[in-house]
Design brief:
Layout (H helix, E strand, L loop, with lengths): L1 H10 L4 E5 L2 E5 L10 E3 L8 H10 L13 H9 L15 H4 L17 H9 L4 H9 L2
Antiparallel strand pairs: 1-2, 2-3
Length: 140
């Protein structure tokens, strides 16, 4: 799954990533939870929770931890400090050939960037504002 997390970071990138001990703290600038979360990059993350909280505070964002499979000890440590699950992420995958077995219907998709004005209006109606559009603009 490591490759999948790299894809997620590449397709919804934080404005910056800062180290706090063995943690990576994403600077989201209002772009959403995934780009504002911290993930542990190496062992020993349990003892760095306060440093991660301070890093989030210095960025003006609430502390948010993103845990991955196999981090049950860290999950217990965070729970003991009052953290709770906010938005579990479910990752689905399938071979590209399955998705591309039939072409999309005519005029159902548009491979364009930047988005058309009507797209930003529709997104704004769904509470997708400039901060999240900024995340989209960072994708390379």
């Amino acid at each position: 799954m490591t490759g999948m997390f790299e894809v997620l970071d590449g397709t919804w990138p934080a404005a910056a990533v800062h180290a706090a001990g063995p943690w990576l703290v994403r600077e989201g600038r209002g772009g959403g939870k995934r780009v504002s979360s911290a993930t542990v990059a190496s062992e020993g993350g349990e003892s760095w929770v306060a440093a991660v909280e301070a890093a989030h505070q210095s960025l003006g964002q609430p502390p948010l931890f993103c845990l991955r499979g196999g981090q049950e000890g860290l999950d217990r440590e965070l729970a003991s400090q009052g953290y709770r699950i906010a938005d579990p992420v479910v990752i689905y995958s399938t071979p590209t050939a399955v998705l591309a077995s039939e072409p999309p219907a005519r005029l159902s998709t548009f491979p364009i960037w930047p988005p058309l004005a009507i797209m930003t209006e529709i997104w704004a109606d769904g509470d997708i504002g400039p901060e999240r559009l900024s995340v989209m603009g960072r994708v390379t």
